[in-house]
Amino acid sequence: MKLVCCFAHQIATWATQQSLTIIACDSMLSDLHTTRQRLRTGQTQATSEIERAIQAAQSPACQHAFVQTTFDEARAIANTPGIQTKPLAGLAVSIKDLFDVAGQTTCAGSVVLKDNPPAEQDSPAVARLRRAGAAFMGRTHMVEFAFSGVGTNPHFGTPVNPCSTDVPRIPGGSSSGAGVSVATGAAFIGLGSDTGGSIRIPAALNGIVGFKSTARLVPTQGALPLSTTLDTVCAMTRSVRDAMLAHELLAQRQVTRSSAPLAAYRLAVARTLMQDELDDTVSRAWQRTLATLRRAGAQVEEVNLTEIGQLQSIQAAGSLAAAESYVWHRQLLERNAAAYDPRVASRIQRGASMSAYDYITLLRERQRWISQMASALQGFDAVLSPTVPIVAPPMAELAPGLARDAAFLRVNALLLRNPSVVNMLDGCALSLPCQTADELPVGLMVWAGALRDDTVLNIALQIERILQK
């Protein structure tokens, strides 16, 4: 009951402050590339940009997006001589509360770890962004232990989707604060993770860009694990070209740019599962986007891709996330289960019923399935699908409580359904917005198999240009 009351109070407080109208989620926000150009030409200063980001972070639209802020550190970085010559030029970056930052305690959205000692060093992802000139704004809110696509957290308050114009809506998760920080202007890059959609879901629901790279390309050390097999370190941005830069910095590799037009690529659209249960807004945006791309010369072909339908039976005995998270959490749960978000604890505890046979079989079946998918997609450069089948639902419909648990589980499953296909594929994917100005955000997902990252990024860049005309 206490969690329900806290959640209801949060919604009421937010609604009062905002009068159910949001001034953020502004499509006119400059991306990082544009801002760096303005820095080079003297039209702005890194210190001025940091003050704008701090103002956004302190606004009602960004409430609960950060669990810890480091504004003074960000100001100091922005004021460093020569900072604008670095790739990130002293501009604002947020860090999901999953990553080690030297001198800070990594809590992963939980109270269970609050007494842990501070990290002795930065995680590789944080260190790479720091060397590139990032001005870190602070640690962002997340679903406890990254185990949900909805974005709620009963311990620290849940950030509200800044694109809502009627009622408070969910931000999507698990990288919820990261998404809100980018959508409101509090950060140009939101560092996060993606195990089953945790970057692409909030990107889709908040009207921004989220790129999930091939998992092996960015080290996961120094990030609290959910699934050691599926976890991917990646980021949200305001544009595809910013996503390219963020990926290059995190993966320490150069993306091969292509000037080929969209018509040069062969794109598949999966009939199986990924177009099911689309709500009216997503369906309208999806069909309109496909028509726009075809008019622009895109080769878009519907394919059955029935292999996607096998995933439910492959995971019938349990998921990789359940099995692998239970290994990490078992002793913590035995000592302190009452301190967990019950919805998170129940998902982790499902791993307890999986046998070694179940787990090894799942790994083997996954590899067989990846091979089948590769054969089915041979000749295609990428696949298009809705990132998620629904727009962000109202928060009140998913508030904690037994009466709403069924609704929560249904929404969580819908949000994870399409993105998680790519994680099981060991693939890469980018979500970019495809809604019109009068619609709630809708994400278009461009995806492919492992190590096709550059192709996905180049195709997404072409699509973004077409949709923005």
From TrEMBL:
Gene3D superfamilies: Amidase signature (AS) domain
Family annotation (InterPro entries): Amidase, Amidase_CS, Amidase_dom, AS_sf
Domain Amidase: 63-457
Gene Ontology MF annotations: catalytic activity
Pfam families, sorted: Amidase
Name used for this protein in its record: Amidase
Organism name: Albidiferax ferrireducens (strain ATCC BAA-621 / DSM 15236 / T118) (Rhodoferax ferrireducens)
Taxonomic lineage: Bacteria, Pseudomonadati, Pseudomonadota, Betaproteobacteria, Burkholderiales
